[in-house]
Amino acid sequence: MSDKIKFPSINEQMDIYRRGSVEIIPEEELVKKLEASLKKGFQLNIKLGCDPTRPDLHIGHSVVLRKLAQFQQCGHQAILIIGDFTTLIGDPSGRNSTRPPLTAEEISENSKSYFEQASKILDREKTKIVYNSEWLGKMKFEDVIRLSSKYTVARMLERDDFTNRFRAGVPISMHEILYPLAQAMDSVAIKSAVELGGTDQKFNLLVGRDIQKEYGIEPQVILTMPLLVGTDGIEKMSKSHNNYIGISESPKEIYGKTLSIPDSIIYNYYELGTNVTSDELTEIKNALNSDASNPRDIKRALARKLVEMYHSSDAAVNAENEFDKIFINKGIPEDIPIFKPEINLSNLNIVDLIVKVKFAASKGEARRLIQQGGVSIDGNKIDDINTLVYFDTAQILKVGKRKFIKLSSN
Question: Between 85 and which of 136, 268, 307, 366 could a Cys-Cys bridge form, CB atoms 3.0 to 4.6 Å apart?
């Protein structure tokens, strides 16, 4: 493409791409593509598809986005495909039920938010953004039939989640069968050389290779990345499991949530979620295996690193100081919001208050927080869901570990 592009050597690139990857299929094809790129001076099209089902991203999403950024930093063309059309279909990967459809307006808003957050990781100016409605939305029914004829039902049912659902008697809709073919057409449309995805996307990515061949296009190499375990150390990171660290969350939230992870996944977070070098990774692994090191200190360094990545060095220092003040020195944050009750409101049930200040999404959640011992006023734990809070003096309401609000008196 341009003789001004300076690509790293093949060995340097492969070391970068292998880091944290689960599979590169087939690896020898990627080497050949890189050799041709280096020899002729053109960029490879590196594809990452995302269905904007939600407006917010967490560091679990960042794992594959960071891999895309690595290809970009090595001189290749990062292409982010916004699945505004495929979101209407719904990808069942890793799910045992179909996903509720979103409206076109929701998809549009989520897409904007997705790219804004992804730009914390990718070079905004060098990232190509395309929407797959540009080609999928133009296909006629005869085009869909012709596409469907290029893949067999038997091959489609080899997909693990389809197989499991079929055996369990869980319905599989025809639109779900068409989803991998629609995703494959994305690879055809942009002539992707490499497609990235989580391990749960492996089947779809392989279908893309097959369909590219059918259309006379050199098949893409696929690179899969692991699914990051959430802060609980058990389930995949997800908002639904409430075990996530959002990349747009405040510095204190990112710092505090990072310190809550089990010691067993510290290295995993460094490897997949940060930009530390291979030599630094080796040092971290050795330190974690050494009796002379305290995992807490390594975890604190990880928390600072993540805040630096998504905010700034100053924000990381401030978040750590704030954390120490609250949890080590048992202090109260300096800047906390103030709740001013209505003039004629002399008291409020604790459950209603927690919902009113938006520290819980529902009364049921507020009751659970109280029953779990996570609610206190001026340091005194509240364990009765029928407690009335009187607004005759200024008080500090604390919910969970990091939520504070000052209750103003009337």
Answer: 136
